[in-house]
Amino acid sequence: MQMKNALTIVAAVAAAMFAQASFAQAASAPAARAEVKAETKAAAKNKELTPAGEGDAMAKPAAKPAKSSKTRAERKAETKAAAKNKELTPAGEGSPKAAAATTPAAARADVKADTKAAAKANELTPAGEGSPAPKK
To answer: What is the pTM for the complete model shown?
Structure first.
């Protein structure tokens, strides 16, 4: 019976200690809405806010990009010429077209012959299977 009382006392003391710690955290209230708005306004005024969608919250705004040496008309003419010569990257591709393969692919007849030989040797993977056909 004494052991049960001792365990109860230990549990009560532990609960009291944890409760005190949680009350200590609640004492520091979060910043008021007006304070947060004032901080945001000051940051916007100093141009310290990160533009929407930029990601890194700690990044400083980038320096202004250098001005182009070409006029708008020149850029438009270049784009039209590139479009006419089919040199533009398709929308969504993001990178230039890959260079053509240097080695020619196997001829269709060669591929068909290889497939027929593999079928005769029972080396083809059955449709819908992920592993080689069982050996008989």
So the answer is: 0.25
